[in-house]
Amino acid sequence: MIWDVIVVGGGNAALCSALMAREAGATVLLLESSPKAWRGGNSQHTRNLRCMHDAPQDVLVDAYPEEEYWQDLLKVTGGQTNEELARLVIRESSTCRDWMRKHGVRFQPPLSGTLHVARTNAFFMGGGKALVNAYYRSAENLGVDILYDSPVDDLEIKDGLFVAAKVGDKRYEGHSVVLACGGFESNIDWMREAWGQNQFGEYPADNFLIRGTRYNMGSVLRVMMREGADTMGDQTQAHCVAIDARAPLYDGGICTRLDCVSLGVVVNKEAKRFYDEGEDFWPKRYALWGRLVALQRGQTAYVVIDSKAIGRFMPPVFEGVIADTLPELAHKLDLDVETFMQTINDFNAACQPGTFDHNIQDDCFTKDLTPAKTHWARPINQGPFYGYALKPGITFTYFGLQTDKQASVFFGGKASPNMFAAGEINAGNVLGKGYTAGVGMSIGTAFGRIAGTQAAKAAARIKALQTKQQGVAHAVA
């Protein structure tokens, strides 16, 4: 059988592509590398979608206009973003939710602990796992063919034209393809190669934890690189979060995140601070801290808070190290007590009087301290004290395939007529670095829907051309 559209991948972007292509009348085969129980890639660990809106909408309050969304994205990426594609994603985020509901996705108002994103993010009822399951049910009902345990390890491509996908000795032929198979974060050898050795003689990737799926090995991306596809991005840039050092190697998900950084101080193994903990709201900065920790010796850091911070952030899954005094805490964290106390005392002395409010960028800051803490700076002085060891948690990589607003894949600057990409494999076009909560799902949803639509159109064109050629050949005969 020759399918109209083959979708490689099984997460949000892949499912959006498959559904859109099927709605357009195409026959669709979805190849998911994982077993059925682990289907959905990193999308199963998500919670919400960042949405543009000009007025209150169902679960979203107030307004979050295009320009504010764009400025938020511009700020976290430091300008390393394609504005045309970024604005496309932003606009698509304002119109996708009705379509999502049609396929069984339900939304809920944000709960306690997430109210600060009630204006910007729409939360999935039941989280990402429920979203993924809803899409799979809809895909099955619409007649999408789905194969699990089917990691694509090669592609047949002729002059930039997709011919077939290969899974071991099995070959699946299609008129078009959507590559929505994630990044390469689960491939520790590739991560080790990309990050190399640091100034401490370490290979940082050896200490990375993978927040999401173990199945994103980057095999298809490697194939596309071999075939000469145009790529973009830095192989070391990723959605990289400072997570609990006790998290599992794979699939720790969102519950391993520690959200108290902005309410305390973070020190490295030398017991010294190395960045502004209060630079911005945590949803706009949490993905920065993983990379910051990755650059420290041992890829380890420690967030320290006092009792004043308790109840002001999402409680972690694992209890932290608790001590009645700061020297005792330093000892329990295996930090040099003298250096640790100097760091904390210098910080406490630099804190300026202000009105603390963790819901806004308040006027509590440090003076004459490097690095500064620009908001939410309060002395660490009320016991008991809490410490949490941090490690870098990689969610997905940003290096991937260059695409355009049709989600087309390119070879030597020329768009393939029937190859498209969506999700993490093309997210770097919008995210050169940094992250802001929910934008990954916005990118995957926008480009997934576009890629599915374009793949169905490409398949129809190719079939029409083949029919015409067959007709000519028959007439000549």
TrEMBL record:
Species source reads Jezberella montanilacus
GO terms, molecular function: oxidoreductase activity
- One Pfam assignment: FAD_binding_2
InterPro entries with a match to the protein in the record: CobZ, FAD-dep_OxRdtase_2_FAD-bd, FAD-oxidoreductase_2, FAD/NAD-bd_sf, Succ_DH/fumarate_Rdtase_cat_sf
- What SUPFAM superfamilies would the database entry show? FAD/NAD(P)-binding domain, Succinate dehydrogenase/fumarate reductase flavoprotein, catalytic domain
Q: What is this protein called?
A: Tricarballylate dehydrogenase
Q: What is the lineage of its organism?
A: Bacteria, Pseudomonadati, Pseudomonadota, Betaproteobacteria, Burkholderiales
**Keyword field:** FAD, Flavoprotein, Oxidoreductase
- What region holds the FAD-dependent oxidoreductase 2 FAD-binding domain? 4-430
Task: Name its co-factor(s).
Answer: FAD
